[in-house]
What does this fold into?
Amino acid sequence: MLNPFDTSVGRQARLTEFRILAASGDGVLADFAKEVVAGRAEPRELLTTGWVVEGWIDELQAEAERFRDSPEAAQEWSLEQAQAFLDQHLAGVASLDVEAIEAVLTRPAPVTPVADEDDEEGPPLLKDAW
It folds into this structure.
């Protein structure tokens, strides 16, 4: 069986996922994704890079526990069903408009002006002083 991540669609999907993770903000996983996107790390190094695993392992274990408790974990798929699902997933991810997603994720938050404490409604304070 061919590794679906070794196909052109699989490689594009993986790069898309790492670009989205890199743009998603802070955290160990986002930092690692930035290294992958910059070409300083390979995706396969994710679980072998100490600082990533140390900072991410608790979150990963919690997600695994939630999955084990879900109804989806009890489902059994044939090899053909699993391969078809993965191929469909990779094709969908590879076709995402990653530039648009990155633009949304990296857009600065709108700044709402804060009212100055000295700004009061009504006439100027020193108007009667003259």
